[in-house]
Amino acid sequence: xxxxxxxxxxxxxxxxxxxxxxxxxxxxxxxxxxxxxxxxxxxxxxxxxxxxxxxxxxxxxxxxxxxxxxxxxxxxxxxxxxxxxxxxxxxxxxxxxxxxxxxxxxxxxxxxxxxxxxxxxxxxxxxxxxxxxxxxxxxxxxxxxxxxxxxxxxxxxxxxxxxxxxxxxxxxxxxxxxxxxxxxxxxxxxxxxxxxxxxxxxxxxxxxxxxxxxxxxxxxxxxxxxxxxxxxxxxxxxxxxxxxxxxxxxxxxxxxxxxxxxxxxxxxxxx
Length: 271
Fold this sequence. Notes:
271 residues; alpha/beta
């Protein structure tokens, strides 16, 4: 990865090791403001890794129910500015009007996708029930987890990014997206899946983070039926997953996993 490539940059540091100080260059995760606009109107500013932004624009639009179909995102223009990056999107007028009616202009952060939401009813959006989805062997989950580390080049350099990955029922990774924000990584993956025309009900999602309610909300909104998180879920995430019919897996490790909702989609591996 050359110096300055989106995702990571090189910076001078002083490293202390074995009682000695040494100056060297290190890879640091890039994080800049990304402003999303719909039909000329600002909607949200997210702190994000400046890569795969067209995927991000489409995925955010789908997971936040701004649009219901990828074809409704009629145009995307990514414009670097002095202060950050502006992503200008064009959607049908009725969709843009619905976005404006939400009055959800907020500043998002890498750890929180809802900071600044203006009303309680804007926070918890209950997605419709998901479909049947696949039934997968527990070994497929372990196979996907084992492959995920090698599919995160930015995190390998920086140790500072999350990943969201899409696996087929056998556990083979199909797509991976990285970002400093776990929500952003998921939106980028959702956008990439839509562009690749991957059926959200045909495989399963793996995320390198905790399973927050917003992650579950986004996944269920686009029809994902099985979500595997390396860390823990929250109580609200479990509630939303249960009500949407989504299988939520937490603490996924090579030697096991915890099934919180709808465990019928995971079957134990044969001894």
